[in-house]
Amino acid sequence: MMDKIYIVGHKNPDTDSVCSAIALARLKELTGAENCVPATAGKINKETEFVLNYYGVAVPEVLGSVEAKQKLILVDHNEYGQAVAGADQAQLVQIVDHHKVGGFQTAEPLYVRIEPVGSTCSIVAQAFKEKGLVPEKAIAGILLSAILSDTVIFKSPTCTESDKVIAAELAAIAGVDPKTFGVEMFKAGSNIAERTPQSMIEEDFKAFTMGSNKIGVGQVSLMGMDGFEDVRANLNKGLEDYRVAQGLRYICLMVTDILSDYTELIVKGDKPEEVAKAFGKELVNGSVELPGVLSRKKQVVPPMTTYFSAN
Question: Cα separation of 251 and 211, whole Å?
Answer without folding.
Answer: 15
